[in-house]
Amino acid sequence: MPEKETHFFDHHYNRGIEWYAERFAHCATAAVVAEICPYFQSPRACERIARHIPDCRIICQLRDPVDRAYSAYKFALYNELTNDDFERAIETTPRIMDGNTYARDLRNWLNAFGRDRVLILLFDDLRRSPQAYIDRVCEFIEVPKIDLAELELPARAINAHYLKPRYPSLARKGRRAMNWLEDRNLDRAVSWLGRLGIWKLCFAGEFPRIRPETELRLRERYRAEIEELEDLIDCDLSRWKHVANVAAAETPPAEAPPGMMSSH
Length: 264
Fold this sequence. Notes:
By secondary structure, the protein is mainly alpha-helical. The chain is built from 13 helices and two strands, in the order ααβααααβααααααα.
């Protein structure tokens, strides 16, 4: 697709369902069609999807909440949505923390579509065993299994922000330009400017690391939420309750060239 995230069911619903359908006009009529979009914490999007595509299947990928919050912070910093350090941003920028109410938000999707139509996956499992992870997805959406060994895959995640904005004012202008183009359906222009290196010029810099004491405080903050999720999905998530080096997990290998994307 020209755009990875259509945001139809939350931000662009006023464009009409025909606009959404056009995004898939290139797909064969008998194909299994899917899209990726961060609708998880939007009750309105959940209700609209259930109304228009009641028989669809929902895949929810959940990530260590501290890891996800730090990644959301990097996304916010990268896109000039905050200029604060992580410790202050988690208090001043609600969107960084809002996406971590997993148990509450997951219940909305389970109630709307039923447990048999909602697949719950863990980002940890994708990292640990990609093939088994993909096998579960293929089985759930009823398509032939995909052998990852036969694919040419990038050496690292293509959607991981390793760099922060070099100049905040330039990043702000770059984000406004990108939004202006996207609002006018000029997605090809966005891609073309990306290939020219314009967005890299606007955003590339270095990210700070999370402080161990901050991580410990957040893990205690999320403990009750994690335990509620454990009961809901019948899964042991003990590894999410203990301190881990979140920043180091997202640092690119020394031999790899720096990237400029975000992993949530």
